[in-house]
Amino acid sequence: MADQSISVSSPVKIESDCKARVAFDLMEKIARYTSDENQRKDKKFWFTLYRQCHKAVNHTNLEGILKED
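Request: output the structure for the sequence above.
Response:
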């Protein structure tokens, strides 16, 4: 076997593609583009938005995503 050296010259970014991570990333993007930067959101907002995103990555239809649990 040939001697192979590996080097990294820039920061390494490790990302997960699990459904929970995808839902979290989706939640962040939605919040960034739809919220007023000066308005602070409460816990209910974040949990509701995350739950809706989690439903979306699990192929729930739109009515199911927006339905309150």
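The chain has a mean pLDDT of 82.
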